[in-house]
Write a structure and sequence with these properties.
Layout: E1 3-6, E2 16-22, E3 29-30, E4 35-40, E5 45-49, E6 54-59, E7 66-68, E8 72-77, H1 84-102, H2 106-118, E9 129-132, E10 142-148, E11 155-156, E12 161-166, E13 171-175, E14 180-185, E15 192-194, E16 198-203, H3 210-215, E17 258-259, E18 262-263, H4 267-276, H5 294-298, H6 304-312, H7 327-342, E19 345-353, H8 355-365, H9 374-388, E20 394-396, E21 401-403, E22 409-411, E23 413-415, E24 418-420, E25 423-424, H10 432-447, E26 461-465, E27 484-498, E28 501-515, H11 521-536
Parallel strand pairs: 22-26, 26-27
Antiparallel strand pairs: 1-8, 2-4, 2-7, 3-6, 4-5, 6-8, 9-16, 10-12, 10-15, 11-14, 12-13, 14-16, 17-18, 19-28, 20-21, 22-25, 23-24, 27-28
Helix pairs in contact: 9-10, 9-11
Length: 543
């Protein structure tokens, strides 16, 4: 059955998009995950991938044309399938909308129609707007409320930040497109829900929206679809039951925050408890339904009885925490599995002499207000080497290979939820100090979840460095659509042979993973030879 693809909302403020390029044409086969088109939003030009498989039967918006979000973009289905009804239906709908816009009552009618679409067929009180979980990235399927910046009863102006939403790529601010009073919050902090699930309700102060919240349904959703994530699922800490022993002098204190062996706790409180070594089963929760919140951890004092039992009578109790997979962790798992099992990886190992690099860095950092890292030097050296070997700076598509003339290097940064890859653009044209400043800024943003989508898009080559953790060598999975990724190990002091003599030396091991579809073994080896010249003689990077 044919599937209608509408213009997606690829940023939190996007209202319309422009098709910059179609990467598929009518009649082409489309696989799930294939890039259909490049769409220009109000923030950036982003790749839009297909969530369906089949044949591209119809293109509704041509290259260079602009259309509102949810306008017919394309139709995918079985080859030869009759889609005239879908096209005519969408055309009639578009004409109907256009006539409404020309009528005298345009604003009121559009508001009513929007409200109706947001809550299925339910009639909304006058002025009430249902706000749903937005699609804040091209691959986002669900979102988590990281924090609310408005509370029920607060006044909301158009453009105010309602909440911070964690997507599969980053934590982003979500602004309101309406003005009014925040009447209802559908998801608590830390809870997740699918795109288009009930997020909040805004309207005139004092309006009763309890029926709206209770009866909200997603238009076209199946009976199994849930608009709200199961409450407290992410905050579970399993406490196994323990058989009572007659010789035990005192039982573990009970609290009002447990139910069926579960402890309900906010993510922040749980983190604070872990840092302070506090047993959550001993904490009385003062939040809603006995939920443990931040103030409970801050004010917690272990009872003398519990302290005595914990100190002198080991329980030997098995215990574990269950942590729900974040959207970022799910996205990492999906993308890396796809890369590992679709791209034929092979690995090239080298070991570079770092004596000159160490001396060069020491001299460079002796300059006033100057400080570069070995990683900055590697980024610069890779950028220059990639210009000489565009085959390594390439991307693979089913029907073509793209050899990039620009060099955008992704630098892997570890964050608590996994890994993000901010991009140093035109790295070959930047100085070592500029590269160092950019990497430092991106790393700080990554750890604070402030990286934007623009700052993580468009890499042509990736570097992963674990040398600072003492790892001597390792292999990485290619960050598609890149054709290669370089794994950088630690600098190790060891005996080396120079001019036939064993002398003290310093070396560094690097491993490059290559996609054999685009980078042949000899091509990869030649790139590493060029890279060796820059790393072992870093002054040549300044020429």
């Amino acid at each position: 059955m044919a599937e209608v693809i509408n213009m997606p909302r690829l940023s939190d403020t996007m209202e319309e998009g422009t098709v910059a390029t179609w990467l598929k044409k009518v009649g082409d086969k489309v696989e799930e995950g294939d890039i259909l088109a490049e769409i220009e939003t109000d923030k950036a030009t982003m790749e839009f991938e297909s969530f369906n498989e089949g044949t591209l039967l119809h293109i509704g918006i041509q290259e260079g044309e602009t259309a509102k979000v949810d306008t017919l973009l394309a139709i995918i289905g079985e080859e030869g399938e009759d889609i005239s009804g879908l096209i005519n239906g969408k055309t009639s709908e578009a004409k109907s909308d256009a006539s409404e816009e020309k009528s005298e009552d345009t604003s009121a009618e559009n508001d009513e129609e929007s409200a109706s679409q947001s809550s299925g067929s339910q009639e909304l009180p006058e002025g009430v707007i249902v706000v749903t979980m937005p699609r804040l990235s091209d691959t986002m399927e669900e979102g988590t409320v990281a924090s609310w910046l408005k509370q029920v009863g607060d006044d909301v102006e158009e453009g105010d930040i309602l909440a911070e939403i964690e997507t599969d790529k980053a934590t982003m601010e979500f602004e309101s497109f309406q003005s009014g009073t925040l009447l209802h919050i559908g998801l608590n902090e830390g809870e997740s829900a699918k795109v288009d699930a009930l997020l909040a309700i805004i309207g005139p102060a004092g309006t009763d929206v309890s029926d709206v919240a209770k009866n909200f349904k997603i238009e076209g959703a199946s009976s199994e679809t849930k608009t709200e994530a199961p409450k407290q699922e992410e905050q579970k800490v399993e406490v196994p039951k323990q058989e009572a022993k007659k010789e035990t002098p005192a039982a573990t204190p009970t609290t009002n925050n447990t139910a069926n062996g579960r402890v309900f706790v906010s993510p922040l409180a749980k983190k604070m408890a872990e840092e302070k070594g506090i047993n959550l089963a001993q904490v009385n929760g003062s939040g809603e339904n006995g939920r443990i919140v931040k103030r409970d951890i801050e004010n917690f004092t272990p009872s003398s009885q519990a302290a005595s039992v914990g100190k002198f009578v080991p329980t030997g109790q098995e215990d574990f925490d269950e942590v729900a997979n974040s959207n970022m962790r799910k996205a990492i798992a999906k993308n890396l599995a796809k890369s590992k099992f679709t791209a034929p990886h092979y690995y090239l190992n080298v070991e570079f002499d770092m004596e000159n690099a160490m001396a060069f860095r020491a001299q460079y950092n002796s300059l006033p207000d100057t400080k570069i890292s070995y990683n900055d030097m590697i980024v610069k050296a890779c950028a220059l080497a990639l210009k000489a070997h565009p085959q390594v700076n390439s991307q693979w598509f089913d029907d073509k290979m793209r050899l990039n003339n620009h060099v955008h290097i992704g630098v892997a940064v570890a964050v608590p939820d996994g890994l993000v890859v901010p991009v140093v653009r035109f790295a070959n044209e930047q100085s070592l100090t500029q590269i160092g400043a950019a990497v430092k800024e991106y790393a700080g943003k990554a750890r604070n979840k402030k990286l934007t989508l623009d700052e993580m898009e468009g890499s042509t080559f990736t570097i992963s460095n674990l040398g600072m953790f003492g790892i001597e060598s390792f292999t990485s999975i290619i960050n598609q659509p890149n054709s290669a990724i370089l794994s950088v190990g630690a600098i190790v002091s060891k005996p080396v042979v120079k001019n036939g003599q064993v002398v003290p030396g310093n070396t560094m091991k690097l491993t490059m993973a290559c996609d054999h579809r685009t980078v042949d073994g000899a091509t990869g080896a030649q790139f590493l030879q060029t890279l060796k010249g820059y790393i072992e003689n870093p002054v040549t990077m300044l020429v």
